[in-house]
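User: Please run a holo structure prediction.
Assistant: Happy to. Please share the sequence and the ligand.
User: Here you go; the ligand is fructose -6-phosphate.
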Amino acid sequence: MCGIIGYIGQKKANGILIEGLKRLEYRGYDSAGIAILDQGEIFPLKCVGKVHELAKKVQSHFQHSGTIGIGHTRWATHGNVSEKNAHPHLSNGNNFAIAHNGIIENYLPIKAFLIEKNYKFYSDTDTEILANLIDYHYQKEKYLSFAEIIRKSLLHVEGTYGIVVLSKIFKDEIVAARKSSPLLIGLGNGENIIASDAAAVARYTKRVIYLNDGEIASVCSDNFSVITLGEGSVDMVYHELDWEIGDEDLGDFPTHMLKEIFEQPSSIENAMRGRFTEDASSSKFGGLSLTPQEFRSVERLLFCACGTAYHACLEGKYLIEKYARIPVDVEYASEFRYRNAPLQRNTLVFVVSQSGETIDTLAALQEAKRKGYPVMGITNAVGSTIARATDSGIYQHAGLEIGVASTKAFTSQLTILSMLALLFARVRDMDDFSGRQYVYALKTLPKTIKEVLKLSEQISAIAEKYYGQGRFLFLGRQTMYPIALEGALKLKEISYVHAEAFPTAEMKHGPIALISEESVCIFLATQKEMLDKTMSNIQEVKARGAKVIVITSNTQIAWEVFCNEVIKIPETHPGVNPIVSTIPLQLFAYYVGLLRGCDIDRPRNLAKSVTVE
Ligand code: F6R
């Protein structure tokens, strides 16, 4: 949450900060601001709303040509959305400006202490106390280096932070520090960029270092140095970003979400590349440091994740239990971290996170590791905190996902989890022939997804008929239940309409009371063995006035007779069927959101990477 950026180099900082903030905007977008050091003074500029509003303001009346500055795009935590609460925040006397991501938990006692020292506060944020705390330490020990002042200040702080600090005292450096909030330095030629996310630096340099918790970096235009908050040593690892310039551009698509939906044939292909055994009867993951014997000795799996990634894990449970017969538990990471869950021996823990920065998932990971369990990760963001904290893991290689509502990252997680089900099954009871059938289904998945994407126009027309309805229920059995949950979440996020999901048969146990003519029920009827039961459930809601949309691969049944809309998708192997069935739901949510006039890529109240609890 919140995007932060700092630039120091030879170019005008304004343009680079604004460009960077546009790339970071998906992390939070209720207000934005920059501060530039120009001719020895710090000049801030802030505004409520999206980065393009700030860009307009810069264009019209902010012609500072300083080559050092910081910027921020906000997802409000402390204080409402207003210019005074937008970052960067200045210390009294304007010696320091700070942009911050995270939460300072003990900000009230620090504020009281600073008020006693005659500091004044002009915002409701926890961040402004940091600006003044830094100034307090500077005034107290003026001989200290910039990084040392920040270190002394942070020693008093409880909570989480990624910060960049600009100073008119220390004119040739920016100091950055992190604790549980991502931060990296992009190393350029005569210029360096600090950002909360590689998206902001990828077009300037591919060479980055990720700061670790407790590290404080002093960044100049042609060098940098790192100290630690405590006694620990600095552990610097250089990474090469594998993003192509332009990955973050829209191309011919109107929104990132639609672009990312249509990228799924290739993101799924990338999730599978080089990950099948030579005899094409199983999958393999170079990143998982387990021998076949160790795979066999796993007695239980535990998956922890949040939101969409949680739904992917739930699907993983159905598939792994079905094919590999290993019991699987799935927990919301935010619950697991505080639950003190009893875990049995030989449990292998997986955390799944697109961003690799979700704080709840990171905390669940740490909790499982503390208890001595091996923890594997499935992440998309290379070099992210979760990727670095796990014992070993699998990268999704889905490419940059900018749309706040996760689409291609979800299907790539599903693909990897389906391949894991195959892998665990093949070291246990699945025979060679079944393994080959499974692999074939996976390999042909990108082609199948391309076919389903051709339904886009039909789904847009269906959305046109129903987008005004007040209630949407998504219903699926077994492997279709997690997909129904994800369909409902996508619709909620993108169109702000009330949507819920249930295992189809659960309908009768309560939710059926919701059914009226205002309701649209979306049934996932793609499993052969469940068709009769699903048809009866459709009749039950039809009889109570609901509109019915069915997604099916069955061509024998005259669905049109008793359903309002029929979306036909290809019949596929049950191990990949959930992935294929996801696509129409993503498209449906997209078109409903569009027709309801919502901001598809920046849905209200959301942010892409949730780095606060
Ligand atoms: C929904 C969505 C969120 C994320 C969740 C976890 O479209 O994107 O529900 O799935 O915040 O994020 P990651 O996967 O980055 O840990």
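The chain has three domains: 3-240, 250-443, 449-598.
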